Amino acid sequence: MQRAGIRPIFAAAVVALAASGSVASVRAGEATLGSAAGSADRYFGGALDPGAFDERPYRELAATQLTSVTPENAMKWGLVEPERGEFDWKGADSLVAFAEANRQKIRGHTLVWHSQLPLWLINGAFRPDEIKDLMVAHITEEVGRYKGAIYAWDVVNEPFTDDGSWRRSIFYDAMGPDYIATALKAARAADPAAKLYVNDYNVETDGPKMQALYDLVASLKRAGAPIDGVGVQSHFAAGALPKDIQSVMEKFAGLGVDVAVTELDLRIRLPADEKALVTQAGDYASVVRACRATPRCVGVTTWGITDDRSWIPSYFSGYGAALPFDAAHRAKPAVGAMIKAFTQVAP
Ligand code: G3I
Questions:
Q1: Residues 232, 198: Cα–Cα separation, whole Å
Q2: Which of 4, 31, 133, 203 has minimal CB crowding within 10 Å?
Q3: Which residues lie below 8 Å from residue 322, measured CB to CB, with a gap of 6+?
Q4: How far is the CA of 73 from the centre of ligand 1 (A)?
Q5: Which neighbouring-strand residues pair with 112?
Q6: What is the value of pTM for the model shown?
């Protein structure tokens, strides 16, 4: 546990970033995604790879366009504790330092997920009570380390399968559905000010998975568990954005929680032609409008910022071009469309 030393580490990194000229400035009057979202009292976020901070164009785009950042991978359990009791906070610390240097919010991602777990944990043949203790200790360690720095945590990620049944994981197998309330309580104890989210995909349309998440959040609220928000990830093909994404967000908000679009990307079958980019821009703008129309929607985060650093091509064969900026860091039509959707007078 190095909590006592963390502030000086960040302070040193902030000075280093500023001294290296990495804190890009925006020309006066120039609209950015972040400033446009700010004018609508929302943030505009992006998932970042701290391993790319040494590339100036990437760093400057992230610094100027975003008012919130999320570690795409750097805060996942498998990366921060690759061996039991041996922590590697390099990437996570670097992301936090970057955000602090650029006065950006941070969405922490993610504490309890079935994927990207360390092998020692998966293969450890731990008893259920040991899994519970390890989960609580992990949350306490990581949330405590960044106490006061992280605006919101994806405490539990992807607890359901597409048919709305519980997803099997070491946590579910050890504790049943109670693992969720246990995780939320541990996070609240470690940083009472952080907003605590459950985050999932394919919940942006009214179907069994959305209903399962709705019922979970309703039951957590009834039980008095500390739940503050629902993350709708929003990974879609351009042209296939669910028409009911706004009504779904409103439905979650009706439970008395915040809502955030947490992992938005809109993939295109390559090569991406002008027509596909225009369709994509329309869908990006629709998501922004849906968020603006939902008073408790606090912001929109895209899963990456530039197409060359997107998870899409390696997971969806033949697809790519999913993000607002292309591989050369040029703004695609989606950028202007989102700025307009954030700034135009609401109808
Ligand atoms: O770090 C290793 C590196 O050492 C190795 O050489 C390389 C070889 O493949 O792999 C690297 O790990 C990769 C890791 O990303 C870091 O780049 C993994 O293979 C790769 O599977 C992993 O993918 C991530 C994925 O989560 C894991 O499920 C994606 O980058 C990340 O975008 C994705 O993010 C998830 C969210 O957390 C939750 N919602 C869905 C979203 C998209 O899948």
A1: 9
A2: 4
A3: 238, 265, 266, 267, 268, 303, 304, 307, 310, 312
A4: 7
A5: 156
A6: 0.93
Residue 311: CB partners within 8 Å, gap ≥ 6? Answer: 72, 303, 304
Helix 56-65 to helix 90-101 angle (10° resolution) is: 50
DSSP string, 108-125: EEEEE-SSS--HHHHTS-
**Which is the catalytic residue, given 72, 142, 204, 263?**
263
- Tell me if 157 sits within 8 A of 110, measured CB to CB: yes
Top mutation candidate among 48, 70, 72 for ligand 1, by most atoms within 8 Å of CB: 72
Point out the ligand 1 atom lying closest to the alpha carbon of residue 315. Answer: 43
Q: What string of pLDDT tens digits covers the 347 residues of the chain? A: 333 333 333 333 333 333 333 334 455 567 999 999 999 999 999 999 999 999 999 999 999 999 999 999 999 999 999 999 999 999 999 999 999 999 999 999 999 999 999 999 999 999 999 999 999 999 999 999 999 999 999 999 999 999 999 999 999 999 999 999 999 999 999 999 999 999 999 999 999 999 999 999 999 999 999 999 999 999 999 999 999 999 999 999 999 999 999 999 999 999 999 999 999 999 999 999 999 999 999 999 999 999 999 999 999 999 999 999 999 999 999 999 999 999 998 65
What separation in Å is there between the alpha carbon of 74 and the centre of ligand 1? 10
Q: Which of 55, 158, 250, 274 is catalytic?
A: 158
Tell me the HSE value of 113 on the side-chain side, using a 13 A CA sphere: 24
Please name the residue whose Cα sits nearest to atom 18 of ligand 1.
116
For the chain, list the domains and their CATH numbers. 24-343 (3.20.20.80)
Read off the tokens for 281: 């821009």
* Residues 117, 138 contacting (CB under 8 angstroms): no
**How far is the C-alpha of 289 from the C-alpha of 338, rounded, in Å?**
9
Active site (annotated) includes residue 263: yes
